[in-house]
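Running this now, will post back.
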Amino acid sequence: MAEEPCQCSDCQRFYKEHDRLIREFPTFKQQQELNWASIQSFRTLCSKVTDELQTKLSERESNEDISSEEKYISDLEMAEALDELQSVNAYLYSIEALMERIFDTKISNCIESRFKEIAKELFSYADGCVMSSKKDGLVNIGGFICTRHEELFPMINQLAIINEGFVTYGGMSGRDLEALAIGLQEGIDEEYLKYRIEQVQYLGEELFKRGIPIILPTGGHGVYIDAQKFYPHIPQKEFPGQALVIELYKTAGVRGVELGSCAFSKKDKETGKIIFPDLELVRLTVSRRVYTNRHMDVVINALEDVFKRRDKMKGLKLTYEGPIISLRHFTAKFEMIA
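Update: finished.
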């Protein structure tokens, strides 16, 4: 019987980070470079801390006037830390020697490009999935829910009645189902993925060169701007993400979407106080098979112009949000603060 994965917070955080690294660096070569860089940076940090502690300890041994009150770290604690760090350095040296052999390993392009097999294997580990197909399904409308658990299927059907209607009332048309079946195959085509990911990468790199604060790495879906860093003088209660969306549209007709204080704020059930999310983002989703890099240049130049004028921008006041706060970003109305 397979051992159940640990559910403690540290392990859960590790699993989440593991999945993110696999998702964002999916090729063998990328994982080689990522792990090599991680080992090198860890060794550099450990060596630097070890040198600093050794220097501190030497200074203490030569200076007998230092009182025990001035030593916020005792000599014993410092010596124990040095022993531990030297052990870590020894382990890292062994790992580095192994990584050199791994880094020299080469995988042919024909193996590296097996996106279909990789996608199939990844899905084999899942209990189910939910997909909005309008993006990388390459269709204009539609989506689906899949599950390996037959007992969940009738429950899903009943929940669909509330949101979509009875399962026999319609759903996706035959034309859209056929388009989705083709789109799922084309969505993992190597040439298509190369074009799509490189276009998003181009947009992100050009914005980053101009000092515009974005979330890195960019991935293959779109670019996320950190609105709190873009407009540090606008507090979240004045919706800096929405302010950026509006200004970008006024400047060049480029439409982004805010994913922050309007979309993801919550109300405390007891106090009614607004709880703002940690992130205040503006998403620039790049439509597939629509734009060239010349279009990306329009977005880049417009954002650069807005960024240069960022100190003059003011926040917004919410004038209408609708009865359900979790859905207010679909219908909210604002006014510029004078």
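The beta strands are 128-132, 143-147, 222-226, 257-259, 266-267, 274-275, 281-285, 316-320, 333-336. More later if anyone needs it.
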